[in-house]
């Protein structure tokens, strides 16, 4: 991944688990397949002759375009997962992600109020978790999804200890 423009020099990024692709695929399937099916209902009703509006071309175009966009998003999922990374430094934690719109976030340890771990049913089945960092700013959306559960627990304890030390001024 070419992020030299926004990455600090000399950083070794830790990647999330490749199993996280499966979590994202399940999320994709639930969201997109239901959407395509619902948008295809008018087409089915028009083809059966039970409904005269919308015109046939519109009844075909809407689900077809939605399906093409859904497949495009599906193809991007493995690359999006590979783009997620984090790096622990002495005074802060770096989190990055994104393919087209790349983002690198710095969260100072002294600003962390608490560290939370969440696990959904698919993540639990794969032994993964999502780490969430909470700061005083409600705009901070610092999450690291797709961590192996053991690494998530280690990181939670490590970040909480560093945050307490920085907050106490040590």
TrEMBL record:
Pfam families: bPH_2 (PF03703)
Transmembrane segments: 25-50, 56-76
InterPro entries recorded: YdbS-like_PH
Domain YdbS-like PH intervals: 82-159
Keywords: Membrane, Transmembrane, Transmembrane helix
Protein name as annotated: YdbS-like PH domain-containing protein
Origin organism lineage: Bacteria, Bacillati, Actinomycetota, Actinomycetes, Micrococcales
